[in-house]
């Protein structure tokens, strides 16, 4: 009896198990959810918050095209997640399995061994972002570059420099040279328009270093399936952006859906082929394929959630950002657009809802009315719609830089970007090729993470002389 009483006393005195909160994804939605949960729960001993991300840094994606155009160094738009949230547990890896019934997540990482870990949770936030949508076509996947990751922007920049080096060689004939310095961007949304403007600025800005290439040899083309580019901003601003791109030297073709992308170039619906070795695919995104395996209701491939971003049927599970269809209560319940400004505010709301759930209280509905959208179109000009007011030209470009500079996390990131922009005003484009053909040949693909292997294969497909 005494032993039993002693045993019961030990049980009574033991601390309760820690509640485990798991956040999948280190983009805008996941990072801001983790950041605010750290502020609310970081000092508590009864809660453990773990962030899982394939990269150990947060990437400020709106500035990716500036890295590709050599306006900014790659390190200027990233910040370490461990440095940003020191009180959280961080796991780098790819989510390879989700079991909502048993509340387990499988995370794979590592190089040659490729081992995995199983993480259990009490509460989970899914902010897994999106992937480039190739619409089931192998050609665009194998012969195009994308603009989703930091690696994408760096590879595109290196690819642009390599094309200039190749075209400047004396042994290249004029006809072949023109094909080498033809650059095609597929997709006329924000990513496509900003990429086309950045590529055009970089190539023409670098030509003084390549005497054998004339401006007339260069061809930058933007192909968009819609009626007007930048449809999110309305036809008037879209038409302005298209006209400005044309004035800058970009060939814009609207109302055209690319039929295929091959080693020879871009095939259009009428059968013509645009000879090129460089295609940037920004025609759309799709949620991660892993989500299709979940026993959840989907809406256009995205997880359907309620106004509090809760996944129906699975208490303690939230989904937000690009991977979720979050109803916009300010717009009749239509799905929120997959923008960074929505994602970061969804992350803040979810953090509050997780904290409320830990207290046994109901969460709040996500409510946000979009303030506006901005885009740069090259040559220090842009377009913007803010609170219903429309802006264009240099003022919109300055407004874009001002708004996004203040949205950058941490003072050190703001300082790095401001310094990079200042240097860019006074100096010419940097044409250093950070990853050359020899280095690409030396890369051992199995030793790289899956996403890096895919990026290297994309460059090898676009760069035949580097194939093994």
From TrEMBL:
An MF annotation (GO) of this entry: NADH dehydrogenase (quinone) (non-electrogenic) activity
Known catalytic reactions: a quinone + NADH + H(+) = a quinol + NAD(+)
Gene3D superfamilies: 3.50.50.100
Keyword Transit peptide belongs to the record: yes
Residue span(s) of domain FAD/NAD(P)-binding: 20-347
Keyword Transmembrane in record: no
Enzyme class: oxidoreductase
One Pfam family recorded for the sequence: NDH2_C
SUPFAM superfamilies linked to this entry: FAD/NAD(P)-binding domain
Keyword set, alphabetical order: FAD, Flavoprotein, NAD, Oxidoreductase, Transit peptide
Protein name: NADH:ubiquinone reductase (non-electrogenic)
Species this chain originates from: Corallococcus coralloides (strain ATCC 25202 / DSM 2259 / NBRC 100086 / M2)
């Amino acid at each position: 009896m005494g032993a039993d009483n002693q045993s019961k006393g030990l049980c009574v005195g033991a601390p309760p198990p820690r509640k485990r909160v798991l956040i999948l994804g280190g983009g805008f939605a996941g990072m801001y959810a983790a950041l605010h949960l750290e502020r609310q729960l970081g000092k508590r001993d009864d809660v453990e918050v773990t962030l899982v991300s394939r990269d150990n840094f947060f990437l400020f994606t709106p500035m990716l095209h500036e890295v590709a155009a050599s306006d900014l160094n790659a390190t200027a738009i990233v910040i370490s997640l461990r440095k940003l949230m020191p009180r959280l547990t961080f796991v780098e890896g790819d989510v390879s399995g989700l079991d909502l019934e048993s509340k387990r997540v499988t995370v794979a990482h590592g190089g040659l061994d490729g081992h995995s870990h199983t993480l259990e949770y009490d509460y989970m936030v899914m902010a897994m972002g999106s992937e480039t949508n190739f619409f089931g076509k192998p050609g665009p996947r194998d012969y195009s570059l994308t603009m989703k990751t930091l690696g994408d922007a760096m590879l595109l920049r290196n690819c642009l420099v390599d094309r200039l080096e190749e075209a400047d060689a004396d042994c290249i004939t004029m006809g072949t040279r023109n094909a080498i310095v033809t650059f095609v961007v597929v997709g006329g949304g924000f990513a496509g328009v900003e990429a086309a403007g950045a590529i055009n600025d970089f190539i023409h800005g670098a030509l003084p270093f390549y005497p054998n290439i004339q401006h007339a040899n260069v061809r930058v083309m933007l192909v968009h399936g819609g009626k007007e580019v930048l449809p999110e901003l309305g036809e008037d601003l879209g038409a302005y952006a298209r006209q400005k791109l044309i004035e800058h030297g970009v060939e814009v073709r609207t109302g055209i859906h690319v039929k295929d992308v091959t080693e020879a170039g871009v095939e259009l619906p009428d059968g013509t082929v645009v000879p090129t070795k460089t295609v940037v695919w920004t025609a759309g995104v799709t949620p991660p394929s892993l989500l299709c395996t979940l026993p959840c209701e989907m809406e256009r491939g995205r997880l359907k959630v309620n106004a509090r971003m809760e996944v129906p049927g699975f208490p303690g599970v939230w989904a937000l950002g690009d991977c979720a269809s979050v109803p916009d209560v300010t717009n009749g319940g239509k799905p929120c657009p997959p923008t960074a400004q929505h994602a970061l505010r969804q992350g803040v709301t979810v953090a509050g809802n997780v904290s409320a759930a830990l207290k046994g209280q109901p969460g709040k509905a996500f409510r946000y009315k979009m303030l506006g959208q901005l885009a740069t179109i090259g040559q220090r000009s842009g377009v913007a719609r803010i609170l219903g007011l429309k802006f264009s030209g240099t003022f919109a470009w300055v407004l874009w830089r001002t708004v996004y500079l203040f949205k950058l996390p941490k003072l050190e990131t703001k300082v790095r970007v401001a310094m990079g922009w200042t240097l860019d005003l006074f100096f010419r484009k940097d044409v250093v090729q950070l990853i050359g053909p020899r280095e690409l040949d030396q890369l051992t693909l199995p030793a790289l993470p899956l996403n890096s292997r895919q990026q290297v294969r994309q460059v090898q497909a676009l760069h035949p002389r580097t194939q093994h």
